[in-house]
């Protein structure tokens, strides 16, 4: 039989060669048109439900967070196992389903069950979060930004870079870690309150009332009536320092007279490091079905252009590949 096949191939060698060339061409064509995935879109038969409550103990988290949720989630169709974990300020439930489950229906059923359990949860508990496992939404690129610059400069640079990457074709989400939210601190000594006969509510109200938009009237045009607004939001330290807080006789007492104003950041909730040095980490996830190689190339080009001729460098923490 094998000899006959070999003889036929030798006899019709031109036909066989043509078929081989056609197959090779089809393979090359498929390589270019098929999406390349570092993390193929595989649906895992598991869904997480998590809920936070600040300060709750693991024992109380089990009684007040997990048990109400378990009571409702136990009735979800197709559920195979349910594993719960209680820790300080946090509760987590992992729901595993039978193979071949309908992931969209399962997620909808879980959300409905969680909604039924909400009235049984403590009032100060945060909103429960339902999270399906989807590898395609994992970051394909993670870079650490660092350099001999002030923290504010680094954070502002990372936010600008995030905005540039988010608009690229194929990009799903861009996340930052290691950045801190900017805040303005107003620091007053207890003796100051006593000297000027102030209380904390008076100080807070002065800032709140000055930091809002005020509608001053309306104007009419052929297309309708419109509100006239004056921008009343505080801009930076100087605007707070010059803000009047009280009148003492003929003198106006401003915040600069009684308080120290600082432009700073909130306490860090997460940290990022590059070679042991503080940094801001930027991670990028791509849309399902898009070409990983193309999206990665676009991202790298934007990062390289942004960091050229600056003191800030971008070090890859992981590099999205294709499979």
Give a brief rundown of this model.
The protein has 323 residues and is an alpha+beta fold. The protein is built from 10 helices and 16 strands. The protein has helices spanning 2-11, 13-33, 58-73, 103-117, 151-166, 190-195, 200-210, 236-241, 255-258, 292-307, and strands at 43-52, 79-87, 90-97, 129-134, 141-146, 171-177, 182-187, 214-221, 224-230, 244-248, 251-254, 260-265, 273-274, 277-278, 280-286, 313-319.
What does this structure look like?
This protein is an alpha+beta fold. It is 37% helix and 31% strand. The strands form 6 sheets. The protein has a 4-stranded antiparallel beta sheet, with helices on one face. A 4-stranded antiparallel beta sheet has the order 6-15-5-16, covered by helices on one side. It has a two-stranded antiparallel ribbon with strand order 7-12. Helix 1 crosses helix 2 (13-33). The protein starts with a helix and ends with a strand. The model has no long low-confidence stretch (mean pLDDT 79).
């Amino acid at each position: 039989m094998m000899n006959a096949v070999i003889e036929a191939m030798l006899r019709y060698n031109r036909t066989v060669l043509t078929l081989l060339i056609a197959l090779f061409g089809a393979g090359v064509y498929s390589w270019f048109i098929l999406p390349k995935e570092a993390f193929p879109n595989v649906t895992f038969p598991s869904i997480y439900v998590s809920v936070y409550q600040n300060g709750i103990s693991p024992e109380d988290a089990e009684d007040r967070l997990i048990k109400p949720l378990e009571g409702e989630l136990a009735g979800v169709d197709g559920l195979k196992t349910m594993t719960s974990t209680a820790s300080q300020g946090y509760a987590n439930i992992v729901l595993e389903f039978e193979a071949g489950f309908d992931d969209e229906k399962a997620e909808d059923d879980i959300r409905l069950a969680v909604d039924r359990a909400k009235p049984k949860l403590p009032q100060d508990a945060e909103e429960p979060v339902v999270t399906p496992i989807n590898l395609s939404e994992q970051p394909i690129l993670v870079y650490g930004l660092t350099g001999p610059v002030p923290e504010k400069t680094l954070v502002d640079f990372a936010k600008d870079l995030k905005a540039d990457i988010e608009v690229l074709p194929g990009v799903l989400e861009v996340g930052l870690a290691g950045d801190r939210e900017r805040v303005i601190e107003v620091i007053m000594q207890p003796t100051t309150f006593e000297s000027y006969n102030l209380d904390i509510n008076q100080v807070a109200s002065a800032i709140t009332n000055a930091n809002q938009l005020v509608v001053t009237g309306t104007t009419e045009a052929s297309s309708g009536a419109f509100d006239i607004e004056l921008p009343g939001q505080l801009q930076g330290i100087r605007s707070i320092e010059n803000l009047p807080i009280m009148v003492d006789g003929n003198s106006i007492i401003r915040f600069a007279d009684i308080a120290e104003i600082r432009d700073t950041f909130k306490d860090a909730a997460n940290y990022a490091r590059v070679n042991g040095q503080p940094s801001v980490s930027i991670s990028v996830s791509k849309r399902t079905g898009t070409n990983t190689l193309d999206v990665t190339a676009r991202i790298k080009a934007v990062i390289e252009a942004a960091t050229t001729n600056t003191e800030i460098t971008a070090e890859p923490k992981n590099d999205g590949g294709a499979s």
